[in-house]
Write a structure and sequence with these properties.
Chain lengths: 72, 351
Amino acid sequence: MKILYINNDGGGFAGPVEIPAGTTVSQLFSQKLPGSRPEDFLIRVNRQPASADQVLQEADRVSITATKIAGA
Amino acid sequence: MSKEHNPLFWGAVHLHRVLERRVQHGLGLRQLESSGLLDRQQTVQHIWDRLVSAQSRGWRLAAGRLHEQLHSQIRLLHLLTGELLDRADVPRPLVPSLPELLADLRQLADEFEHVEVLPKTKMLVAETSPIELEGLSLGRFSIQLHLDRLDGSLGTRCFDCVALGPNPAAGNDSVTHPHVQSKALCAGDATVPIATALAQGRITDAFCLIRAVLQTYNPSSPYVSIEEWDGTRCTDCDDLVRSDRVNHCDGCGSDFCDDCFSFCDLCEQSYCSSCLEHDRVSDNRCCSTCRHTCSDCGRTVDSDSFNDETNLCPGCDSEHHEQEDVSEPPLQENDHDSIPEIPDPQVAVAA
C-alpha cells in the first residue's frame, strides 16, 4: 500500500512510498531512520500525534521532524 | 465566524495565492525559453535559404562559410532542445489545495502554544515555549513568517525570530540566541529542509524545523558562544568583561580587562602588561619589537635609546667609549703640528 512519507531530515523528502500492509509507525521509523531514537522526533500521522504501535493505513500522511537540529 | 473573518482561512487563502503565483512564474520562464528555441530555429531556416541561394549561383566561398554557420546553429539548437526536454522531465511543484493549507495551519495551532495570523502585517506568528540551552535561559521566541517574503527566495529569510523576553549576549544586543542575530536565524542543517517545506506549502513543518534549531546549541559555529554569553574572562585577573569592552593583546592573542591592559610607549600598539617590559631608565613600557637587552649590564632598553651597533645601553656605551679613549694613543696627523718630544734632562745628562 502507498502512504505519503515526509522526512524533514537532510534535504527534506516528501513523496509517496510503498509499505507492506500492517506496518506500524515504529516499524516505519526503524526502516527509514535506523539508529535514531523516536523520542528525538515529532512523528505525526495525518497531522496528529501517533503511538508507536499504530498501524498505518493506505494514503496516510506520515511526517517525521527532528526536535533538535544544529544551527550555524 | 465567517470564512472571510477567520484568520486561519485568510492565511490559507493568502498562502495559496503566493504559492500559485510562484508556480505560474516558473511556467512563464519556461515559455520564454521555448520562444528562444523558436528564434534559433528561424535563424537556421534563414541560413539554409542563403546557403541554397549561394550554391545555386555558384558562390563556393560564400556557400562554404554559410555551411559552417549552419552547422554551428544546428548544434546550438540541438543543445537547447535537449535542455528543454530535460527540464520538462522534472515534475513541477504542486501547490497544495486550499483545504490542505487550512489543515496545515490548524496543525500549526496544535503544535505551538500560541499562534496568530496577522492579516494587516501579512504575518503568521507562532510562539515557542521558553528556550533554555545548557543552563542559559533565552526566554520565549516568536517565529514570524512574513508572507510577502515568500515571493522572493524561499528559506529562513522569510522568517524573523524575535525574542519575547530577550536575554541578549553581553557584548552584542542584536544576538538574542547563539544562532540568531538581528532576528535572523542561521539555520545550519535545517536550511535545506526549511526551503523545501516552504516550496511544498508545508508551513507547519517549516515552523517546527525553525523551533528545532532554536532548541539546539551548536558549539562549533554560534554568533556568541554560551561560555561567552555573559562576557569574556580576563586572562590576567579572571574578571568577566563585556564582549564589547574586551581588550585583545597583539602580543599573546589573549583577552584582558581595562585594568590589566596597556600599550607600548614607543609604537602605541595594544598589549597586556605581561607582554610589556619596563625600561627603568627611560621609564618607557616596551613591547618585544621595541625593546632590547644591553649585552653588558642586561638592562631592558627601549629601541630609541639602544645602540644597535654596539648592542649596549647608553650608559654602557659611553663607558665603553671612555675606556677606548684612555687606552688608545693620540693620533699624529703630521709632523709639523705634533709636539716635539722633550728629552728627559736626567737621561740627557747621563748620555
